[in-house]
């Protein structure tokens, strides 16, 4: 069995241990989007990433190929991704914890370098290129109640859409839901890359309430980039067995 904590442990062809984080929790550690993280994965083929992600039942999983270099790969159940917000924030949080100090950069395999840091209140942030974020449709509705009333699209209808409404436009607070059946996630609990793009679209910082109670803070960063920040907590690790 591979160990997510032991760099010397060889990878079994069938069994993998994933650390489990919840990213974009509230300040009390509730809610958040689950994320699987495997450490010391430089020898693992990328085709295992979507399989492990699907087996975990998560929207995304991160392979940390090189802890010292902050080199990662990001996967959803269908493919490898350039950049995704909750995997990047979660990876930055975990690498900071492993190193005993916040990191200042992440290096996703398919994207440019991603700046990272930690706020005084414990939130971890990342700043990335909007061009590296997944493409999706953005649909504004008139009220949070309309957003909440939407049914999850049928699994047979490929969808990649963020639906949102202002909760308090003056305060910059948003209610949002993200549907991503096109990549194996009917509804995402918290979508950092979508919050980054939304902040850029409205041209101002936003606080997004998504899913059951996840909280994301995003803001434009200029030059085609945006930031997203949130709290992270850790749950018990899990073992994935692939046949």
UniProtKB/TrEMBL annotation:
One of its GO terms (cellular component) is cytoplasm. Transmembrane segments: none annotated. Residues 218-243 are annotated as: Disordered. One of its GO terms (molecular function) is isomerase activity. Pfam families: PhzC-PhzF. The active site is at residue 60. Residues 220-234 have a biased composition (Basic and acidic residues). This is PhzF family phenazine biosynthesis protein.
């Amino acid at each position: 069995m591979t160990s997510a904590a032991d760099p010397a442990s060889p990878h079994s062809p069938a069994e993998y241990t994933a650390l489990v984080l919840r990213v974009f929790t509230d300040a009390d550690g509730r809610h958040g989007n689950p994320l699987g993280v495997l450490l010391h994965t430089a020898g693992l083929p990328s085709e295992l990433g979507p399989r492990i992600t699907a087996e975990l039942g998560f929207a995304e999983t991160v392979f940390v190929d090189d802890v010292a270099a902050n080199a990662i790969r990001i996967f959803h159940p269908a493919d490898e991704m350039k950049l995704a917000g909750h995997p990047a924030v979660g990876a930055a949080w975990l690498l900071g914890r492993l190193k005993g100090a916040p990191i200042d950069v992440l290096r996703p395999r398919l994207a440019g370098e991603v700046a990272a840091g930690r706020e005084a209140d414990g939130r971890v942030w990342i700043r990335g290129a909007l061009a590296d974020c997944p493409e999706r449709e953005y649909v504004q509705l008139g009220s949070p109640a309309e957003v909440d009333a939407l049914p999850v699209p049928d699994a047979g209808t490929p969808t990649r859409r963020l639906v949102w409404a202002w909760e308090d436009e003056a305060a910059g607070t948003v209610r949002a839901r993200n549907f991503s059946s096109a990549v194996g996630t009917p509804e995402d609990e918290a979508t950092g890359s979508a919050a980054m793009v939304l902040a850029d679209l409205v041209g101002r910082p936003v606080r997004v309430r998504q899913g059951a109670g996840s909280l994301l803070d995003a803001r434009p960063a200029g030059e085609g980039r945006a930031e997203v920040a949130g709290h992270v907590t850790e749950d018990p690790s899990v073992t994935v067995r692939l046949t």
